[in-house]
Amino acid sequence: VMMLVSDEKPGIGGEPLLGQKIKPKCSIYPKGDGSDVPSWVAFDKQVLSFDAYLEEEVPDKSQTNYRIRYYKIYFYPEDDTIQVNEPEVKNSGLLQGTSIRRHRITLPPPDEDQFYTVYHFNVGTEVVFYGRTFKIYDCDAFTRNFLRKIGVKVNPPVPCPEDPYMKIRREVLEHVEPLRPYESLDTLKQFLQYHGKILCF
Questions:
Q1: Where exactly are the structural domains of the chain?
Q2: Which stretches of the chain are assigned E, i.e. beta strand?
Q3: Which parts form a coiled-coil structure per UniProt (predicted)?
Q4: Are 72 and 165 in contact, with CB atoms under 8 Å apart?
């Protein structure tokens, strides 16, 4: 019977065919002297945190041509899942929060048959999630130590650009003086201070 099989289909007994190289589907951590426990047990409740930014073009170019958006990329070594969050910034005018929910993400073409692993992340590199390029500029101390232990040379932190729109807003607010300075009135303090006192005329 004629059948269409993948190029990664192994031969009889699961052995690769002559000249065949099967691509790994998950992270391959170096073998140490510890116990051979599965990754979901060894790396339980451990997460790698990377600081990244994204340069996004804006439709309204009256003030700026682009916006710089800052993200937190969380990589879970237990199952190679990735989650991307955008910390909320006050008065940014953008929808922020969870950008990409936790799941395994495939590499950009032509390697869309493979998934991102821990070895694809490093300071100063770029990762592409669904057509959006995230530039990693820093990571926390735990992530840096974790990468060094598995043999990855971690690059030093790189400078992160400032959002031009937020810079313009901050400069405008610094030069604006209120027309009517006012003092806040604490009504609760007034209620407790004059409680039980009556003026008679």
A1: 45-161
A2: 48-57, 66-76, 81-86, 97-103, 126-129, 132-139
A3: none
A4: no
Which fold is adopted by the domain 45-161?
PH-domain like (2.30.29)
Q: Between β-strands 81-86 and 97-103, what pairing exists: parallel, antiparallel or unpaired?
A: antiparallel
The label of the residue with tokens 């995230």 reads: 134
pTM for this one? 0.67
6 band by pLDDT with thresholds 50, 70 and 90: low
pLDDT in tens, 143-192: 888 888 888 888 888 888 888 777 887 777 777 766 666 666 677 888 88
What is the spatial distance between Cα 56 and Cα 69, in angstroms, rounded to a whole number?
A: 7
CA distance 187 to 102: 47
The answer to whether the CB of 140 falls within 8 A of the CB of 123 is no
Q: What is the pLDDT of residues 84-104, one digit of tens each?
A: 998 887 766 677 778 889 899
Length of the chain: 201
**CB neighbour list of residue 78: distance below 8 Å, 6 or more residues apart:** 39, 40, 42, 43, 44, 46
The span from the CA of 49 to the CA of 10, in Å, is: 36
Q: What is the CA radius of gyration of the chain?
A: 27
